[in-house]
From TrEMBL:
Domain ABC transporter: 29-60
Region (Disordered): 66-85
Protein species of origin: Microbacterium murale
Key word Cell membrane present: yes
Protein name in the entry: ABC-type glutathione transport system ATPase component
Family note: Belongs to the ABC transporter superfamily.
Length: 85
């Protein structure tokens, strides 16, 4: 196996996800993540720790209108950069 490239295929910076409108609750708190080509990543945690919300947020599918995303960014080299607000 070759060493992973220094350029990630996915870079996530300061991902924050909130649920609720009246008294929003932050359920993902400032996540940073880099995934290099050929790298295998597992997100592990207790039930309710935000694994699914994190994955859905990165691909832009988190709970429709119920989820609000704080300032952060997810970028894929070779694709357009998506900023969350």
């Amino acid at each position: 196996m070759t060493a992973p490239s220094s350029d990630p295929i996915l870079r996530v910076r300061d991902l924050r996800v909130h649920f609720g409108t009246r008294n929003p609750i932050e359920v993902v708190h400032g996540l940073d993540l880099d995934i290099a080509p050929g790298e295998v990543v597992a997100v592990v945690g207790e039930s309710g720790s935000g694994k699914s919300v994190t994955a859905l947020s990165v691909i832009g599918s988190a709970a429709g209108e119920r989820a609000r995303h704080g300032v952060g960014e997810a970028a894929r080299p070779g694709a357009h950069r998506a900023e969350t607000r």
